[in-house]
Description:
single chain; alpha/beta; Alkaline Phosphatase, subunit A; globular
Amino acid sequence: MGKKVIMIMVDGFGIPENGWFNSIYSEFCDSRFVKLLSDFSIPVTTDMGVDGIPQSATGQTALFTGFNAAQIMGMHMQGFPGPKLREVICRRNLFSNLLEKGKKVAFANAYVQFTLEELDKMRLKSVTTTMVESSIGWVRNIEDLLSGKAVYHDLTRKTIMDKGSIREISPEQAATDLMSISREHDFTLFEYFLTDKAGHKPDKTVLREVLGNLSSFVCQLIDEAAENTLIILTGDHGNCEDITTKRHTNNPVPLFIYNHPLPRNKELMSIEQIYSYIIEDIFINTKQGVS
């Protein structure tokens, strides 16, 4: 059986200055999740050698394409990618590269509120939406969600319970759904951005729910992971780890890898290097085992 890779991109998820065990994560997350992050992750910088506070458009472009997007733009760009960044994303990204290598890829997020066409008209295409549209060509919808073949961005579907037959589920069930999707693909990506939204408030009540759900979700994935299932978790920039500010932070993000050796010291230090690590080390290198 071939290798299965699940990647979770957590928006605004930085490493706390005082460490994992004395942080907002240790306060709101399952203690097992915090220990997993401590044991199976390394810090990765997100500034890309450019002054200013790291932002989502350039951070995610760098993460998913391997290009230093901040240097290309000459600054950190927030929100949705403009024409120049979209060109970078369409030129090369994780999905398109893996598809060229004959791999089966999936973006697990369900698009319930708007279609790709509507997002395009509203100019609200995120980095991941641009990547999916240019490579896979379609996104999962409400029918996929209801049949367990997609995961909603809030994990529990709580924010869309007013839509017809949708009912709230547990973060653990969302993890089971994601694991089911991954069994049919070589690489499966899921994006969780409520951490960034909560960090911009910042509201401890909201953060408790958002981080609590994330920790339960990841722990369930670990419990269900087979020997051939590799789990990656990383972020695009810091934010929710610092409750004292509504802004993004310059803190590094974790590169969490389960069921595969972590990069050696100083082998991977900046966010744009994660792309090559996934392509070259994880998919070309056959090493296995928990690091």
